[in-house]
Amino acid sequence: MMTVVRYMRCAIALILCTAVFQLWVHRSDKLARTSVATADNMELHVNKSSGKPLTNLTSVSVVNVVLPASFQPRYEKFPCRKMTLTNMTFPICHFTGDYISAFLARGKYYEGGLVSRFVRLLRLDRQLQLIDIGANIGVYSLPAARVAHVIAVEPNWRAMLRLAKSVDLGGVSSNITLVHNAVHSDRRTVSMSITPGNQGGGRLTKCKLTPNKSCDTSVLASVRTILLNDLLPLTRSKSALIKVDVEGHEADIFTEPSAGQFFDQVDVPSVELEWVFCKRRSAHIVQRLINFFYSRNYTAFTLRNTKLETHYRSWPYNIMFKKGNRTDIVL
């Protein structure tokens, strides 16, 4: 009789353990599927960050803030390697065969000299934070997050996937806020295309691929645009450097309705932006961008601190708008 009782108890315990295990497996698989589907559908974690709560701004619901540890990709594997810059060693996850990633694969840091100078400025003034618009895989954001708070904005979810993994591996989640949006002059949903071989060459576009592939770029997906003003609740100080690399859309970021509030509330000593594509826009759009800065007492400089006094179409590949007479801001 005692043997039968023991057998029944063991059987019941085994059934309970099996049920608990199956429940755990189901829940884990569901969470993993949710993470991947979230990335694929561009519906990343919203309204959460390691910084300030998203309050006092009615538009915060459009800001997609990514939680780095939540990304556990199951269907895409990518390399991560240790890189060293300005005596800091940190992991950076990248693409295979991509333009910028090719530098990293050879052990060379892309734009290492310029990034090092950004890090130096952030070290000199601990009140500064970095707003990295067009962060890509984090060439600027990852080292900067080791000396200052960073808001990294990237619309390409494949690049954001790698950036989030790098942040998690490097243990800097508390010092960087990842935003999966494009910054523009208005809020809407747009398509995004990528230049083959350059994941950092993403552009907002109205082009849609036809069956005969009449559009020579591959459309990724739709992405939501936000205003620069929408980043205000994520800032942690009243002073910030801004770096912008958005393939010619720089002029769409800095308009009075979309960015004026940010510049009114945050002291921005300098804005570094890629000029080579921006200067090709129509004259009235480029002039609107220049007037935005000139009206706020900014002056255009080369990255070597030479004042630009020629026509804007002759300005170099990258430029810097510097506020007032700030002699301490020299890249």
Summarize the topology.
Layout: H1 2-40, E1 65-66, E2 80-85, E3 88-93, H2 99-105, H3 112-124, E4 129-133, H4 141-144, E5 150-153, H5 157-170, E6 176-179, E7 182-183, E8 189-195, E9 198-205, E10 218-226, E11 240-244, H6 250-253, H7 256-265, E12 270-274, H8 283-294, E13 298-301, E14 318-323
Parallel strand pairs: 4-5, 4-11, 5-6, 7-10, 11-12
Antiparallel strand pairs: 1-6, 2-3, 8-9, 8-10, 12-14, 13-14
Walk across the major sheet and give the strand order. Answer: 1-6-5-4-11-12-14-13
Please give the number of β-strands. Answer: 14
**What's the level 1 CATH class of the largest domain?**
Alpha Beta
Q: Tally the structural domains.
A: 2
The biggest sheet, with number of strands, parallel, antiparallel or mixed sense and barrel status, is: 8 strands, mixed
Low-confidence stretches: 17-60
Q: Could you tell me the radius of gyration in angstroms?
A: 23 Å
Provide the CATH topology of the largest domain: Rossmann fold
Structural class: alpha/beta
Compressed to H and E, one letter per element, the order equals HEEEHHEHEHEEEEEEHHEHEE
Percent of residues in helical segments?
A: 25-40%
